[in-house]
Amino acid sequence: FPNSLSEIDLSNKLHGKLPRWIGNASFLWRLNLSNNGFEEHVHLHGNRLRGTLSLAFYNNSSIVTLDLRGNNLTGSIPKWIYTLSSLSVLLLKDNHFHGKVPIELCKLHSLSIIDLSQNMFSGPIPSCLGNLSLPIQMKRILETGFYGPSIEEDESTRIMIGNLEMDSYYPLSYLEEVIEFTTKSGFYSYNGDILSYMTGIDLSCNNLTSHIPPELGNLSEIHSLNLSHNKLTGVIPSSFSKLQHIESLDLSYNNLSGEIPYQLVELNSLEVFSVAYNNLSGSIPKPKAQFGTFIENSYEGNPFLCGDILHKSCSKTDSPSTISTVSEDKGEDGLIGTYDFFVSFLVSYVVVLLTIFVVLYINPYW
């Protein structure tokens, strides 16, 4: 029965949990959830949902996870997204969203995982994303080992966790919510304790432009940052050296230029690193700790990068600036040489004429 449904209208001021079977309705393409108060985790990935993000979830302070991956949703992320004040996980991967990444996301202080990859977002990356930090609720989880509202609230409240229904107060080890996220060149599922620690941002495979905000270096707790396959320009911020917990950093397939900041060798937790296919130049940072484990494919596609890993000596490698300077020098030298030639020729010609004139004047019989 559920699998045969193509349209569902639940706009009737409903509360509680979104029915589990909705997420498995493979033929569903239209779902109206407006004027409701659904709570906690909303998983609707892998359906055929079309249209835009309407007001279905507007001002819902109970939603922690919003998973709409792998649908056919269009339009932009609405500005009211900030009203989802408890939102911790936002997964919009593989849709047809466009427009700018809204700065309203920066108002969601509980956000720990953002996946906007494989869409059509454009414009700059909001610098305010650098203000996101480990949420207060997560800190309380790590300190107390419990997840849920404060102890003064009604302990009889029941919440849905994946396919289980449990009391609001339970040890963290019983947390069965599963989040899927791509990092370290692989697709991983996170739940339990690991999910509590996991933080990541994936903006890959969009049309983002301009430079990478240095403010992203303030995300000291982040574990994964993927900005690959965009149209980003400018340099790699040296502030990335402050990403002390970063395990995966992918900046490949952009238009980044300049040198790779040598400060990045201090990232001792880094396991996967790629700046391939950009316009970077100069020497690859000297191998140190984790940086000594990265191979050639982390740097390939940058013709002006040099170093032992690329089997290219830096002393024999010209950077774009060097080539430009040499070309300009050659051009200037060419102009100077031509000018000197004509001056020398003119002076020589005048001297010869004067010599002939003097000789004829002294000896008119010649």
TrEMBL record:
Regions crossing the membrane: 341-362
Subcellular location: Membrane
Key words of the record: Glycoprotein, Leucine-rich repeat, Membrane, Receptor, Repeat, Signal, Transmembrane, Transmembrane helix
Similarity comment text for this entry: Belongs to the RLP family.
Organism per entry: Gossypium raimondii (Peruvian cotton)
Membrane-protein topology: Single-pass type I membrane protein
Name of the protein this chain belongs to: Leucine-rich repeat-containing N-terminal plant-type domain-containing protein
Source organism, top-level taxon: Eukaryota
PANTHER family attached to this UniProt entry: LRR RECEPTOR-LIKE SERINE_THREONINE-PROTEIN KINASE FLS2, RECEPTOR-LIKE PROTEIN 14
Coiled-coil stretches noted in the UniProt entry, renumbered to this chain: none
Top-level taxonomy: Eukaryota, Viridiplantae, Streptophyta, Embryophyta, Tracheophyta
One GO cellular component, as annotated: membrane
